[in-house]
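pinging the channel bc i need a second pair of eyes. not urgent but kinda urgent?? the chain im working w is below, pasted from the shared doc
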Amino acid sequence: MLHMAGEREILEGKITDVYFIRTLQILEEKNINPWVRAEFVAKSLPESWSWAVLAGLEEIIHLLKDLPVKVRGMKEGTVLYPHQPVLEIEGYYQDFCIYETAILGLMCQATGIATRAARYKKLAGDRLVMSFGARRMHPSIAPMIERSAFIGGCDGVSIIKGGQIIGEDPLGTIPHALILCIGSTVESVKAFDEVITPDVNRVALVDTFNDEKFECLNVAEALGEKLYAVRFDTPSSRRGDFHHILQETRWELDLRGFKGVKFFVSGGIKEEEVPGLNPLVDAYGIGTSISNAPVVDFSMDIVEVDGMPLAKRGKCSGAKNVLRCNKCQKDLILPLNIETGKCECGEHYENLLQLQLDDGNIIHDPPKPGEIRDYVLEQVKHIPDYINL
């Protein structure tokens, strides 16, 4: 038996904190059902992040689409900052109160993963960043992890279902298991070349048995021009000066005419290591750092009851707009009905909170994952490097 919730159970509101069930029972018994606005905000971001990438909206709209509510929200993939409302639900509270737990779960984890992926991609620049971390998480959420990593900026994902969701072929190299079963790195690469179709790049894993430098030379000589890349998954206990290992191996390969062989690195690569590795690395395989990214701690708060601004202590009441200048990227948060002129740079502001769902009518067709990814990368490109970490 797999301990997981199915889509039907989530849509039926069974994945909810019990106090929402009790709240609903009390409100029904007392015949209290106010018309409310509730907004979702992250007051802070994890690990001193200064920005995040919103993810999970497509699933949230799917969850709410049969309810008599109105939803305004940022587009999926929008770069957000602390204290900005990213989603607002308007309707009778009894109609959606039991879905708060699920909405937060869909948004908090996906946003954390997408943000971590965006940070790695920004650091890596034009180099490939591949999501390799689904194996570290429960398989029921692996597709969500892969999609979130891809829309955040990863160039590829590793599992079959993840590839189907994003509309891209999954990517992978050779596992240590194949090399151990065959007993030789070189023979494993040869077997891969004999069996797997030529459209798949030949990438040799070079850290299983021997010194990486000499293993690289061995597979390069065995495959010649067929060898696309070598992958360093050197464990931390054997890594030492990883930069020097790559540097030395590059020297030896270039000296022998293998300048075209690319370097892939994986195995616990941290964000702060990427800038120093970039001059030697062509692609990164990032695992747990992305799949187990810290969640962005959104909360849902009622800010308006029956048309009157009302909120708990520590929360600004009333419906709001989040405005952004597309030229200078300056943001403003204003009350819903307050109009503003142009930005001080001379450009008009864009309202980031757009109508997404209106009483069962989905306003916009969901964009394809690749389109969201392009949107993310365009925004992240304008974030100054000095506030990235």
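so The first strand starts at residue 35 and ends at 42. and The chain has a mean pLDDT of 92. — does that match what u expected or am i reading it wrong
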